[in-house]
Every structure is written in C-alpha cells, then in structure tokens.
Input
Amino acid sequence: MVWRTAVRGGLLISIGYAGWIAGSLSERNKILNENVEYTDQFGSVLRKLPGLPIFATVSATSLPDRSDKLIPFPDEEPLVSSKPKVVNRISQIMRFGFPGLDNVRSLDDYVLSYDRRNRVAHWVFEHLTEQTVKRIEGVDRSQCQFTEDKSIHPYFRSLNSDYRGSGYDRGHLAAAGNHRTDQKHIEQTFLLSNMAPQVGEGFNRSSWNKLEKHVRKLTRKYCNVYVCTGPLYLPRKEADGKTYVKYEVIGANSVAVPTHFFKVIVGEKNDQTLEMEAYVMPNQPISDDTPLNVFQVPPESIERAAGLLFFDRISRDKLRCINGRKTTFV
Output
C-alpha cells in the first residue's frame, strides 16, 4: 500500500514538472517570436529582443564561417553604402569579438557598451577604412547637436545639464571625424551615451584630438582599422600610504569623470597581417610637444584595468607587431 502511494506521488510530481517545462518553453517561444519594433530619435527601427543569457554570444553580429578569412569577403556588400544593412555593418565592426557584453547597443556605424552606474560607456567600437573617413559633401558636423540617448532608461542617462558649468568638455569616444559617410552617422556620435567628461584645453582639444587624427591616418597604411575606446578609473596612492580609486562626478546624475582614457587599435594589411597599438592617456592637460608613443602601453594592462578582453577572436600569435615592436610570435 505504501509503495503504491509513493508511485502515485512520483507520477503526479513528474506530470507537474513536465507541465511546467512545457509551459516555460511555450512562453519562451512566445517571447522569441514577438516582433516588437520601435523607432529611435534618428529614425532607426529597433527591435526589442530578450536579454542575453550568461556567456551567450550576440548572434546578430556573428559572421558565417568562411575559413577565418581576415579580409572583407568578396560576395559581401561594400562597406560604404547609402543605406547599409545594420546587421552586416555591425558584424564588420565586431568581427574580432566583443570586449564585454554589458548593455551593448548597436548604432548604424559604431557599437557601444553602456555603464549605467557611471553614465559613461564602458567601451565603443569602430571599424574604419580610407573610404569611410573621407569627407563627404553634405555631411556637416556643425549641424549636429549633443543629444540625450533616449534608448537608455531615464534613471541612467547623462544630460546636457550635467556638463553645464562643470568645466569639462563632452568628449567623444567614437570620434565624429570617423563617421563622415552619412549625416545620420555623424549625428549619432553626438549622443551623450558616446560622451565622457574630458578636460578641454590640453586634452580633448589637443592630445586626445591628435590621437584621433593618428587613428584616421592609419587607414592609409591598413585596409581595415578596428579601434576600441573607453574610460579608465585607475587607482592612486594617497598621502596616507593607501591606494584608492577616486574620481569626480558631475551634474545631478553624477556622471563619472574618468581618470584616464584608452584606445586599442588593430590594423589589417592587404596581405592579412595584423598589427596592434594600445594607448592610455591621463584626463588632464598634456603638453602639445609630447609624442604619442609616450602613451603606448601593453594591451593586457588595459584589459586588466578595464575588466575587458580586446580582440579575443584574434590569437596573439597572429599579431606581427604590438606598439611598433615585432612580436616573437610571427
């Protein structure tokens, strides 16, 4: 009698569990099959999708397997197009992997990961060629305005009022001068999610601008240039002998002022060889006569400080040079 009761109880539990699984799968399929779309302030149609599971990849940006070629595939559409397909363009930008997957947003010509706590991006990612950085008639930076990013929840946005009277510039992470093939592209670089508080004189308008121009010049040397840019909040030893991470915040939304900024760049030549450069600059006035190579650092030092992994789809033994020095790998 006891064993019959136990068997019946086990069957009831099994049936209930199976029903729960079926219901969960049905609800999951319902979510995945929803086709909810909305339009952002630039007229781009965005689709609401379920959140990424832990350790997931972003399938919309994954390239098909084509024997791991390192140059643009001949059967793909050209990079410069009046109406580029977003998925193809984002796949090109993120070709060598994501540094992280925290609050990733894809714009038409660059990708960013947003830090909701600090109201500044974790990183932005760009893909440049000699064609994409050329000036195009009708694309005018002076027509752009700094705009709050309405795709971000109001709790976590930075606003123009946060910068007003702070003494800091609204410094581009994805540089406006890198996105001149379309007026919409350059306008999207003026979203405040792409900005960080930067010292103006001696940094944003000087040394940082010099580094941005250097990156654009690399498109003359390489057929493809991939660049990841972001903020750092580095520790410093204080008078009491202890080490602290300290940074200022500005405005009503407490927008973080980074202590430093980084750029990690990979250039690809026509023969598919790859070279890397990595820079860290302090967010402070820098003398105009300071050469850029003073700010070159091992890329792994930035990875440790930022908690990111750059170009993780490129094995380091594929890099011929890092910061102008030949590696022992190639």
Notes: The longest helix spans residues 2-33. The helical segments are 2-33, 86-93, 160-163, 183-188, 200-204, 207-217, 299-306. Residues 207 and 291 are 9 Å apart (CA to CA).
